[in-house]
Write a structure and sequence with these properties.
single chain; 448 residues; mainly alpha; Growth Hormone, Chain: A; 22 helices
């Protein structure tokens, strides 16, 4: 790939990294600030309160998907990506300065809620804008590889958050972390977003977006619900294929640290280190799996994920509960994340490949955000609900069941690897019809 190609991937991914650093920092530091916004009581109940606010952010994502997806289709991918990182910076600052329960009562929790709503609005648009940008900026035979950097950057954001948590755990007392240390990562996130805002102001628009003559979407209908309705089968397909993947992903990333400390009984420092090491390996796997999908297709990887998640979730989660130490917990976590890679590495390009250019950002954003609101955002809360009810193993079966539903979709959907992004049009049975890529890729294509 040429220098300009890598530059597009870097600029698109850098903002995504900061977005997800802020998004996941909330989850990873919740064990420290849960008591700051709610009165004293049961530790699990306080975690459920913060998890509930975490889930509320997901329910704002469909709104963000609609608003920012519309911006992405009508004003360009660059405009949407710049706006999302601005909103994320503002939300991180709100959390950093939010008053505690002792100072403002439930007023602090209200500020936390507003910040999470802004984060949901931002991330709801960021996913689709990033997915479409990375997919469209790639040569046809490398779309899987290039779009895999979306989850590389997402995971890198979480790794940075966990790394900062490890540093703070080792340099600050537990009392200081619970008192004010948890505010530090949100300040870092706000500053990082400001840097990315500057980078995105000079980013290049994709050529696919600039040339939409053959996509079948009228200029006035770009980014509208009317245009999306014409592709309602593809929108439903995005919801269905996201269901199992998003539940599994949030189970083994954002919820894993809490599960290891709150259920498996590992010290918080050990649980954090397990997640940190597992996520580094997970990030490295994404481009490899994405490149594999460029060679063998998207469906084989999706089916492998769904079969593995359906059959292995219950035994992996059960053994994790009794892991007892760092190495067994790390090994089981890595096994789970290897399985999840079949979904995370290529889900961005698969969804983008379903829609024509004029409706691609909204087509990916809105149904994906709905699926995340229903399944991803509630995963942690559902897990804690099962635990609080004394039937924690019920959550393992819930994750496996979601993967089984997605498996049916993966088996029945068409392959999307060889479609021409500039000529996706119409609506087929379960997928968009498309013109296969027939011409060889030239040097000019690769440079774009």
């Amino acid at each position: 790939m040429g220098r300009e190609h890598w530059k597009k991937i870097w600029v698109g991914s850098a903002g995504n990294m900061v977005e997800w650093f802020d998004w996941f920092v909330y989850a990873s530091f919740a064990t420290y600030f849960a008591g700051a916004f709610f009165p004293e009581g049961n530790d699990t109940a306080k975690l459920m309160n913060t998890a509930g606010i975490f889930a509320v952010g997901f329910f704002m994502r469909p709104v963000g998907g609609w608003l920012l997806g519309r911006v992405g289709d009508r004003k360009g991918r660059k405009a949407a990506l710049t706006l999302t990182v601005t909103l994320m910076s503002a939300s991180a600052l709100l959390i950093a300065v939010a008053p505690t329960y002792g100072v403002a009562g439930y007023g602090g929790a209200a500020v936390l809620l507003v910040a999470r709503l802004l984060q949901g609005l931002s991330v709801g648009g960021e996913y689709a804008a990033s997915a479409t940008y990375l997919t469209e900026a790639s040569a046809p035979e490398r779309r899987g590889f290039a779009s895999s950097f979306q989850y590389v950057s997402m995971t890198a954001g979480q790794i940075l958050g966990l790394g900062l948590q490890i540093i703070l755990q080792r340099t600050m007392s537990t009392e200081a972390l619970h008192s004010w240390g948890w505010r530090i990562p949100f300040i870092v996130g706000a500053l990082g977003a400001a840097v990315v805002f500057y980078l995105r102001r000079t980013m290049l628009e994709t050529e696919v977006y600039e040339d939409t003559a053959d996509d079948g979407v009228a200029a006035g209908d770009k980014g509208t619900i009317k245009a999306l309705w014409a592709h309602k089968r593809e929108a439903l397909l995005v919801i269905a294929l996201t269901m199992g993947g998003t539940v599994a992903y949030y189970t083994y990333t954002t919820y894993l640290t809490k599960y290891l400390s709150n259920s498996a009984g590992l010290p918080k420092q050990t649980a954090t280190l397990v997640s940190f090491c597992a996520l580094i390996v997970f990030a490295c796997l994404q481009p490899l799996a994405g490149r594999l999908s460029d060679r063998i297709g998207r469906r084989p990887l999706l089916i492998t994920f769904a079969v593995g998640s359906t059959l292995l979730t219950v035994p992996i989660m059960t053994m994790l509960r009794h892991a007892g130490s760092f190495w067994p917990a790390l090994g089981l976590s890595l096994l789970a994340l290897v399985v999840v890679t079949g979904y995370t590495s290529i889900n961005a390009c698969v969804k983008a490949e379903l829609f024509p250019t004029g409706i691609r950002a909204l087509g990916v954003a809105l149904p994906y955000a709905i699926a995340n609101a229903l399944f991803g955002g509630t995963a942690e809360y559902v897990a804690l609900w099962f635990k609080d009810a004394g039937i924690e193993s019920g959550y393992y079966w819930y994750v496996a069941g979601c993967a089984a539903v997605s498996l049916i979709v993966y088996v029945s959907m068409r392959e999307t690897r060889d479609i021409d992004l500039g000529r996706v049009a119409g609506s087929g049975a379960g997928t968009a019809s498309a013109t296969p890529v027939k011409k060889p890729v030239t040097a000019a294509d690769s440079a774009s």
